[in-house]
Design goal:
Blueprint (H helix, E strand, L loop, with lengths): L1 E6 L24 H9 L5 E6 L15 E5 L5 H13 L4 E4 L1 H5 L1 H5 L4 E4 L6 H9 L6 E3 L22 E4 L2 E2 L10 H5 L4 E2 L2 H8 L6 E4 L9 H17 L4 E6 L7 H9 L2 E9 L3 H7 L11 H10 L3 E8 L8 H12 L3 E6 L7 H8 L29 H15 L2 H13 L4 H28 L5
Parallel strand pairs: 1-2, 1-3, 3-4, 4-5, 5-6, 7-10, 10-11, 11-12, 12-13, 13-14
Antiparallel strand pairs: 8-9
Helix pairs in contact: 7-8, 8-9, 12-14, 14-16, 15-16
Bound molecules: cobalamin (B12) and iron/sulfur cluster.
Length: 457
């Protein structure tokens, strides 16, 4: 039996535009969900994975699969449905899973044969059995997995050529930020994989650099931090020789032993959601956590830097508290904190979030011709009505923000600083240059968006 697992492309996502920006090669990351599904699939199935972000193949020339499994974030939903229609035409059953189908079940059911909601670990074997017997159900409800059920992902199923490998060590987040789907999907409980499994799986990853996809690798409580330290100690003992990056909360900076162990185990950078340069903004999105103890962000980042850990700072533009000038304010504040790489995204109501419920009830979801408009839910388009900024102003603020932070003098200043302190200067420079080039690509896609959407100027 042949199983084909597909990660659909969203052509608007700059990272997919490798031909137009060669730097994006270094930012193409693996669809770990499909590698995990591969790990859950029994050996009698011949599994192939197609990552359309690398190349969209000519499906007609490929051996006909007995089952197609498609994953999708919201921004990939349109393409997922196109693929489902194509395979439906060939008489091949299609099952869809992942965050979008879980949050928009009714919509997905109209377009695919079966949907797996939630996590697949406890249900995938049943799906395959039903597919083999030709009696698939319409809906399979996956539950939060026990973390010792998470298999070793099949890292061998994707070719080499990715800059980063991927691995997951925890699921769930005890916080519940208004814009984020993680708590709705993976729950508030902070579930941790057995450390031995994680270390063993690291050994299967070919790439030297690895993205740890956890939403918060260190967690928020003392016992979470103790587990993170144990994990780093085990990675050091195993002599993995990997360099890794991960998402964490700012409390990582408060524990010098944690920073030391992280760095020693290969940590080169962390991604932190600051979300807003103002306290009101952080409170608006539910990130009060960042403000605990009157935190000094610059001092926190300095401590991380001392351990040669780069900081990617993530900010949201378009909060109800944001007014004109917010773009420059984000760029300047993040530079003042000492952020190495800035990631600013538009406030976007994603299905399943508190933000979605609020904006929907207030009639503020502007790009709402679904499923077509899902392609714009990449966090790079102003898809909602913003309180103090029109769509055009939103884009101008973004342009100002990215243009200021990634200006040539600031890139040079960061490069010299990183070179001097030996903090992955080339890696950071590649991301800086890629972001600068993507600014131009994003301008072009925004123009296309405003032509098809009646944005208020
Ligand atoms: C790593 C990551 C990325 C990486 C890599 C993405 C990739 N190709 O996999 C990068 C940085 C590229 C990325 C980009 C984006 N991301 Co992202 N990302 C994540 C993150 C942190 C982890 C995803 C992961 O690997 N999880 C591990 C796997 C094992 O879990 P899983 O994907 O949930 O899969 C399980 C189940 O869902 C299910 N399943 C999944 N697919 C399928 C398919 C079938 C057939 C079946 C049966 C089951 C099944 O089975 C799996 C095992 O249980 C998630 C947060 C999260 N916790 O999920 C956000 C998340 C998925 N990202 C999100 C977003 C918004 C984006 C962006 C749009 C914007 C951005 N953040 O820059 C872009 C979109 C890119 C695009 N192509 O359109 C949102 C998506 C919400 C939504 N409704 O779409 C999330 C949930 C974060 C959030 N704050 O809400 N992302
Ligand atoms: S944004 Fe981060 S901290 Fe907030 S709920 Fe999502 S995963 Fe948790």
């Amino acid at each position: 039996m042949r199983l084909s697992l597909i990660n659909p492309v969203n052509r608007l996502v700059a990272l997919a535009k490798v031909k137009k920006n060669r730097w994006n090669r270094y930012r193409r990351w693996k669809p770990l969900s499909l590698l995990v599904l591969g790990g859950l699939t029994p050996p009698e199935w011949e599994v192939t994975i197609v990552d359309e972000n690398v190349k969209v193949p000519d499906y007609a020339t490929m051996p006909r699969p007995d089952l197609v499994g498609i994953t999708a974030f919201t921004s990939q939903a349109n393409r997922a449905y196109e693929l489902a229609a194509e395979f439906h035409g060939l008489g091949v059953p299609v099952v869809m899973g992942g965050i979008h189908a879980s949050m928009c079940l009714e919509e997905a059911l109209q377009r695919v044969d079966s949907v797996v909601t939630g996590e697949a670990e406890g249900i995938w074997a049943q799906v395959l059995e039903d597919a083999r017997n030709g009696n698939m159900k319409r809906v399979y409800a996956g539950e939060h997995a026990n973390m010792d059920e998470v298999p070793l992902a099949r890292h061998d199923l994707l070719p080499s050529g990715y800059a980063l490998g991927a691995i997951q060590t925890t699921r769930g987040c005890p916080l519940s930020c208004s814009f984020c789907t993680v708590t709705a999907f993976n729950g508030r409980g902070y579930r941790q994989r057995p450390i031995d499994d994680v270390v063993q799986e690291f050994g299967l990853i070919r790439e030297r650099r690895v993205l740890i996809v956890d939403d918060n690798l260190i967690g928020t409580r003392d016992e979470h931090i103790a587990r993170a330290k144990d994990l780093f100690r085990a990675m050091i003992r195993a002599g993995l020789r990997k360099e890794w990056v991960a998402q964490v909360t700012i409390n990582m900076a408060d524990d010098d032993e944690l920073l030391m162990l992280a760095s020693k185990s290969g940590c080169k950078g962390v991604f932190i959601g600051f979300e807003s340069p103002t306290a009101e903004g952080m409170i608006e999105v539910g990130k009060k956590f960042n403000l605990h103890g009157g935190r000094d962000f610059k001092a926190s980042i300095d401590r991380m830097h001392r351990h040669k850990i780069l900081v990617v700072g993530s900010f949201i533009l378009g909060l109800d508290t944001d007014r004109r000038g917010i773009g420059k304010q984000i760029a300047d504040t993040s530079s003042r904190y000492g952020v190495d790489i800035l990631n600013t995204l538009f406030l976007t109501p994603l299905p399943g979030t508190h933000l979605w419920k609020d904006m929907e009830s207030q009639g503020r979801i502007a790009a709402n011709s679904f499923p077509e408009d899902w392609q714009f839910y990449t966090l790079l388009f102003p898809v909602a009505c913003y309180k103090h900024l029109s769509s055009d102003e939103m884009f101008r603020e973004m342009d100002e923000c990215v243009g200021t932070f990634f200006s040539v003098p600031r890139i040079l200043r960061r490069f010299v600083g990183n070179l001097w302190r030996m903090r992955s200067p080339i890696f950071a420079l590649a991301i800086d240059l890629s972001s600068r080039k993507n600014l131009a690509l994003n301008r072009k896609t925004y123009r296309e968006f405003s032509l098809t959407h009646d944005v208020e100027k």
